[in-house]
Design goal:
The complex is a heterodimer of chains A (about 1200) and B (about 160).
Chain A (H helix, E strand, L loop, with lengths): L5 H4 L2 H8 L11 H16 L4 H15 L3 E7 L6 E3 L4 H13 L14 H9 L3 E4 H8 L2 H12 L4 E9 L2 E10 L6 H45 L2 E7 L4 E4 L1 H7 L3 H4 L4 H5 L5 H14 L5 E8 L5 E12 L5 E10 L1 H22 L4 E6 L6 E4 L2 H6 L3 H4 L13 H18 L1 E9 L5 E13 L4 E10 L1 H4 L1 H17 L4 E6 L3 E5 L2 H6 L3 H6 L3 H5 L5 H14 L3 E8 L5 E12 L5 E10 L3 H25 L5 H15 L4 E8 L2 E8 L9 E2 L6 H9 L3 E3 L17 E9 L2 E10 L7 H46 L3 H14 L2 E8 L12 E4 L3 H9 L3 H7 L8 E2 L2 E4 L4 H7 L21 E7 L5 E10 L7 H99 L2 H9 L2 H26 L7 E3 L1 H11 L6 E6 L7 E3 L1 H17 L5 E10 L2 E8 L6 H4 L17 H11 L3 E7 L3 E9 L10
Parallel strand pairs in A: 34-36
Antiparallel strand pairs in A: 1-2, 1-5, 3-4, 4-5, 6-7, 6-10, 8-9, 9-10, 11-12, 11-15, 13-14, 14-15, 16-17, 16-20, 18-19, 19-20, 21-22, 21-26, 22-23, 24-25, 25-26, 27-28, 27-32, 29-30, 30-31, 31-32, 33-35, 36-37, 37-39, 38-39
Chain B lengths: L4 H8 L3 E5 L3 H13 L3 E5 L2 H10 L4 E5 L7 H11 L4 E6 L4 H9 L4 E4 L4 H40 L1
Parallel strand pairs in B: 1-2, 1-3, 3-4, 4-5
The chains are: A alpha+beta (about 1200), B alpha/beta (about 160).
Chain lengths: ~1200, ~160
Amino acid sequence: MQVKDLNELVKPYHVSLMVEQVPYSNKLHEPIQILHFIEELSLKVHKLLDDRLILNTVADEFEKRTEYGVSVFLVNEDGLSLRLLKSSTPFKDLEKVKKLSRIRLEKEGVDLSRSRLFNQVVKEGKSLKVGAYELLSDLVSKPLSFFVSKMVGLTRKEMILAPIHRSGKVFAVLAISGNEFTESFIPSMANLSQHISYSLEHVDERISQTKVEEALLLELKKFQRYLNTMDVIMLVLDSNLVVLEINQKGCELLGSPASEVVGEGFVTKFVSLNKRKEVQAVLRNMVSKGTQSVGQYEDLLVSKDGQEHVILWCNTPLKDSNGKVVGILCSGVDISKRKEDENSLQESYRSLLDLVNHLQGVVYRRFNDREFKVEFISDGCCSLTGYNPADLTGSKRLSYSQIIYPEDLDLVRKKVQEGLKQFNQFQVEYRIITARGEIKWVMDRGKVVQIGSDGIAMVEGFITDITDKMSAVEDLKRSEERFRALSDNSSDIIFLYDVKKGFEYVNPTSSRIIGYSPEEFYSDKNLLFKIVHLEDSKRLTQTFEEATEYRRPVTKEVRWIHKNGGVVWTEYTVIPIYNKSGELIAIEGILRDIIERRNLEAERRRFEDRLSALSFYEGTLNTARNLQQLYELTLDAIVKSLGFEYAVFMVVDKGGLKPVCQRGHSKLLFSQLPLDGSKGGLIARVVATKKTMLVQNVWDIKDYIEIFPGIRSEICTPVIVEDEIVGVLDVESKKINAFDEKDAKLIEILASHMATAISNKEKQMEIERRSNQLTSLLRNSAKMLSITDLRNRLQVIAESIQELGWRRVVISLRDENLAIKSQDGMVCAGLTPEERDFLWRNQNPELWRERLSPEYKRFKIGQFYYLPWSDPWVRERFEATTIPSKLAPEDMVNWDPQDILYAPLTLADGKIVGIVSIDDPVDGKKPTRDSLAPLELFLTQAAVAIENAQLIRELNNATNQVKEYADLLEQKVDQRTKELIEAQNKLIKSERLAAIGEVAAMVGHDLRNPLQVIVYTLFLANEMFKRISPEVRKIMEQQGVIEMLERIGEQVTYMNKIVSDLQDYAKPLKPELLETSLSQIINTILATITVPEKIKVNIEVAEDFPKIPMDKAMIRRVLTNLITNAIQAMPDGGELTIKSSIEGDMAVISVKDTGVGIAKENIDKLFQPLYTTKSKGQGLGLAVSKRLIDAHEGSIEVESEVNKGSTFTIKLPFRKLKYSQND
Amino acid sequence: MVKKGGTYKLALEKVSILVIDDDKDILKSLKDILRTKGYEVDTAETAQKGIEKARSKFFNLALLDIKLPDMEGTELLAQIHKEKPGMMKIMITGYPSVDNAVRALNYGADAYIMKPVNPENLLKVVEEKLKEQREAETMTEEKIAEWIENRIKKLEQSK
């Protein structure tokens, strides 16, 4: 036989038949597995979004997993010819054949337009099962088909051709070939082809959805770009913390492109080593617990170049439909800069602390309690007490009270409480025991301050070490002074003789008793031996020898020759003085004039009394709280202890002498004395010579100027502190010769005590002032750190500057042009509202630009500009813009009230963000670099505060943006999840129903034939009865055989109904819509049903009710079902009501009974297949009814109450249905 | 042989029926039922056998199951109709497939019965169809007789 064209010969069918020759070992066999397979496949194709892909998948899966052959044919546009899908299995096999038989396959697909069977499938849109051979012969001529069957081996007998629909037309044909198809496979196939059709139907829909999603993504990207400009880092992590996505900002920060970041473990790769554990824990926690709230935390990221960035994170967990966390959306802000600024603020705070800590002494803040619990104590604590500040602060080992020397503790408590009560401050000296057990003297000065908003009273103070002062050295010095004072005024000759150098000291009494002055002794080492009485020279030596031999004072009577030749009797005492190694280094000698002794003793006692009185005062001087008190105490000493009547103390002040305190005079006659002597001769001379003047009679002095009326004699002593005269102590009397040298001496001693006290006081005041400044700095810095609001922070800074001794402070926020942005941008302290307004109105950015220009550089002191009013250049420029000071020039020391002091607030990069101007110093002094130093601290803080506030504002904005974005995303995710769940449920439900359908079809089909046989057999039996003899018939009737057969007949009828229902249920439904009269159909039904007499039937359906488009047979079945059910529900009679109405575009038909009703829990199951409340119900009746109504795109519902009855309501659309018959 | 004798002749012959169904039990019980009504019954389990029997033997009527293992019922119907158009053909169709029924009629079936089959109904339809067949045959015979009579009359007139 000649074959001209092999292409003609080998039609695709043959190829599909070829596939079956390959034996598959692992393929599916069992029908139920096929069912599962088709189910899976259906699910799979539903997920695909491409026509070809769907068809290819079906072909592939069949090839891989079943023993059936499959090929897919696409219908050409003309609707008749078919093309074989290139990728489907047979095509590949065709290629194999090509090799064997040299077939040329150039075109895609093969023309099948001549196939009758295929065209039938395409035209009718229904599946066909055909014999393989039949199909073959349909395609080629008989001889050819014989040849082909021989060539490829026709081992499969049957084929199913299933149409695949799209947009109401057959789009492709699925050809499945197999040896034998079980009956169950056919509906499965139909089901599969339906699924495929459905998937195809939805491809467009889903593509458009994808487009919407893409558009959304675009929107998101836009938003992301926006976020990029907002400096927000965006990351998406999966549940293993692997980076899935990162935005541009994140890439920039990490210094790597997205491709290097995505797929990496986020924590292990990018988080700084020391933060890893912590961050890992936070993120893992989020994954495992799915905390919904937006968590914020900081961590360190390391970029490629090794730089660390501080990131503030705000994370949201991403969840799937089951609520499981599948990833995390992280958004972060780089706050490294802010951190740096915070650090620099902390740094300045630290430097302040350093300053405090390097003070000679200890600054502290403690609670006002009995234990002196310390809240803060500076590092000086360490050197003073030997304890670390940490030992004392908080509730640690020690309270401060434990350090105080136990014997002093009560006194300290008492003095502190008294001081605080009376003056709100205290000063107390006491001893402490250091960590090493040393005893130290300290002076503790403090006052009460209110801290924080709750106003807790705390004690702040300053402790200085005064051990030195109180120490033995001091005592020695004092006793030496005393010794000198005593010895100088002693009636005895007292000397100190150094064994090597000779006389170290001889008191002036020597001149008086033996006529030789101290100077004469100093110049002659052996003078004592020269002037001793010859008879006593041996005794002189003996006294010395005995004293050194026994190492104790020895006294003997020794006579001396006076310079004027007379003999002087004395008691001579030698006191040997040894050094530490026991060597004799000196002797102290005392010569007592035995005759004069008694007279002199009385005078000496009086002097000593007064001296000791003065000494007492000296002690009290140091307790003076201020200078004025010190002056008062001094004058008290003069009046009360020395017994003088008039005394004045004048201080040197601004080039003149100003009386500050007086006794005896009723009032001061002058306010100030010039120092040049133009007004007071005597005092001026004292000031000039720095020497005490004793005037026995003022009239003796030519240039004496009478200041106090009636004064005749006067002692005037300078009070000298460090070579500077700080004041003059003036004691007067209205008598002549009222004072002697001793009085002058006492006043001098008093003046020297006073000088020491003044000096101490001044130093103390300076320390106190500094410590107050520093504690206030300390407090305000701490306060500032806790204030986030910019304006409040600046206010605190302004007030702090005030506390540092300036009455007026203005801080203004400036933009790049140095203009003040708003009234809020100006913070003042010490200004009246009018002054503030004046400044606001006269703010002149140009002027300020000029003021901060290099032209003004010469006025710079540190960061400040100080413009003295004395400079004409300055005066000329600022006359108009400054607020006239309310202060008078005379209140100032060297500050002119119109002087100008200001400084720019500059960031690290040199950008000016504000200006501080300061005025009216409390001390009236010109600023110096030192005095401005603490202020500079505030400049830095103010600048940082301003920048911080701006940063914080930006940060808050960014955080809000991120939160909004996260919310949006969450909403989106929720919505999508919901949609997915819905789709899934729908799918599951339809799958389940489809599966039930399969079973129903199988069961129904397999029962049909046996039942038919029973029916036939029963008929035969009945026929037989008719023919048998009446006798036998009678016996059989008696035996109940006839009745039995009838019963069997009834049951078979019922079984047949179930089978019909099952098949109904399984059958694909295509209602054929015809406009039908409702009342007519109801009448037809009622005509075929026997309604028991006990049941009353009400038909409330209008004759002219609009015709409803319906499949008559289907709706008839449904209504028959409902009416039969209703009747069965009323075994004891009742009412059956059928009603109709219109709701929108729906016809509503209700069937109501007054029967037994349905329990609530059963209502939901009512429409499920094989559910019934009756022992023998319709089983599938309602399920079928529902299917039929669903096929009409209508609805069926039930309302029911047990023992009251049920109402079934059907709704059918009036509009034309989608699935109307095509042909 | 002329005049109404033809009908009589047909009535004397036993009516024969061919039943094609793949279920042996169905075949047997249906055969018994038909026999009780005096029909002669032959059966076939496949379409192919059925066609062969129809070719080799005369049947007044055939009962065809719509579903057969080797051929669709409609296909069988088409083939059998082609060969024996005079034979009455009743399709027994699956429940409730109007499609099949309509197709059956289109392919030349004279009637269809839906499953489950009520035997009484079946017998009724069979009898009806046989009656139709008889009437059709009578009609044919009568027409032929009439035609011959007319020819004869014309011939006589033309003479």
